[in-house]
Write a structure and sequence with these properties.
tRNA-binding; peptidyl-tRNA hydrolase activity; seven-stranded mixed beta sheet; alpha/beta; Rossmann fold; hydrolase; tRNA binding; 252 residues; Pept_tRNA_hydro; single chain; disordered C terminus; 7 strands
Length: 252
């Protein structure tokens, strides 16, 4: 029931989808490839485990030297930065919505900037990976993550690559909800600092690639409004731990 309600809310919010009448900035009209990196999270809850994707995006902006360029854009319900990585034009997006409807912001930004689902890289927390582990997943199901599910629903595609940042499952009697909405402990923060650096290294590596990684046996396009079947999407993961050299990321 809750999932159905969230889907309805997604649809209602998307009814105000960006249109040309709202005005395209000149910066959108650029030659070359465009990609978007999205830090999923809850508006007003930066610093919590569930919003670790926003922390990664902030570190990426700092690495690119554009951390002071965030600007609110009501047409995409988020904050954006335009930047470049080599010859790729990159849009950084921080949705200003609750996690369960982050996809509304992502879909609006994709429409405004003319970015295809396969060129949208989602960064989000992952309960099933321990803190200190990160992994790239190339498309497929949401695996229970509500923010990713919202993106899949709003974009009507599941081909978006994701950077999954481990936050570990709660221990003892702590509920999952309390765990993900809580902040990292002092000891966890020490691990997180290294994770943020490794995450940005991996993102820049992904953004520097000339072509999206796709399964050569899967179709490169889908019917309008159709969903790319998860079973036709190849999943390749790379894991990295602060205790290991990030260049020797293990397959997971």
């Amino acid at each position: 029931m809750r999932r159905l309600l969230t889907r309805v809310i997604n649809r209602v919010l998307l009814s105000e989808l960006f249109t040309p009448a709202m005005g395209f900035e000149a910066e959108i009209h650029v030659q070359g490839r465009r990609r978007m990196v999205v830090g999923l999270g809850n508006v007003g809850m930066e610093g919590t485990r569930h919003s670790v994707g926003m922390a990664v995006l902030g570190t990426l902006a700092t690495r690119l030297g554009v951390a002071d360029r965030w600007r609110g854009d009501k047409h995409v319900s988020g904050e954006v930065i335009m930047s470049e990585v080599q010859d790729t034009h990159v849009v950084l997006l921080r949705p200003r919505l609750l996690m369960n409807v982050n996809g509304v912001s992502v879909a609006k930004a994709a429409a405004k900037y003319g970015i295809k689902p396969e060129d949208i890289l989602l960064v989000h927390d992952e309960l099933d990976k321990p803190l200190g582990k990160i992994a790239i997943k190339h498309g497929g199901s949401a695996r229970g993550h509500n923010g990713v599910r919202s993106c899949i629903d709003c974009l009507q595609a599941d081909v978006m690559p994701r950077l999954r940042v481990g936050i570990s499952r709660p221990t003892g009697k702590t509920s999952v909800e309390r765990h993900v909405l809580g902040r990292f402990s002092t000891e966890e923060q020490k691990v997180l600092d290294s994770v943020l650096v490794q995450s940005v290294d991996l993102l820049i590596s992904q953004l520097s690639q000339q072509d999206s990684k796709q399964d050569p046996q899967s179709s490169s396009s889908s019917p309008a409004g159709g969903r790319r079947a998860a079973q036709k999407t190849k999943k390749r993961e790379r894991s990295a731990s602060p205790a290991e050299d990030s260049a020797a990321a293990a397959q997971s």
